[in-house]
Amino acid sequence: MARTILIWVILAAAVGVPIAAAAASPLLAWRGPVYILAGFAGIVALGILLFQPLLIGGYLPGLSGRFARRAHLWIGGALVVAIVIHVGGLWITSPPDMIDALTFSSPTPFSPFGVIAMWAIFAVALLAAFRRRLGLRPRTWRIAHMLLAIVIVAGSVVHGMLIEGAMETVSKAALCALVLAAASKVMAELWMRRKRGPLRGESAARQ
Q1: Number of structural domains, the chain?
Q2: For range 168-196, the mean pLDDT
Q3: Residue 196 has what pLDDT?
Q4: What is the C-alpha separation between 189 and 203, in angstroms, rounded?
Q5: What's the CA dihedral at 80, 146, 109, 126 to 10 degrees?
Q6: Is 167:43 a contact under the CB 8 Å cutoff?
Q7: Residues spanned by the domain of 88
Q8: What pLDDT, in 10s, does the model give residues 59-94?
């Protein structure tokens, strides 16, 4: 029980501290509400990326495999919503900057990484929604999902680290490191154990 509580406290701190630090940033004093909402939607999206691999890998204590898999789907939908709010808010506040970003002509180094990650997130969501209609085999879906997940995690982390904004540097770096560590561990386990058996979360879900 103590271990379960400790894990959840660490995860809550990993996501909550960067959000709290960003909320206290003096840079927000010069920003409008739409821009602030868009920025925090991006922070929330980064936090969601920490939970997604842990859910599908069965590493979150206290959650059954079936519930974790369903939560993975629902939180994936929340990730899409967060990205839409993030991009939509930035579009409202500065359409020219967003056009430059979406066309990969922005001078800011973080823009292309964020745009690539965004399209990868949308691609996963569309494949998940229409994979039966597309006739994707489970193996094909898993490979596509894994490859897109690598793009999402790598692009999002680089995008976040390159931005010099409201997020505090140390807490942001810690969150990004945890996202990379969680994704890398689960993907490595997925890759190594597929031929021998399902992940711990998947085996519990099938019982």
Answers
A1: 1
A2: 89
A3: 65
A4: 14
A5: -30
A6: yes
A7: 2-206
A8: 998 888 889 999 999 999 999 999 999 999 999 999
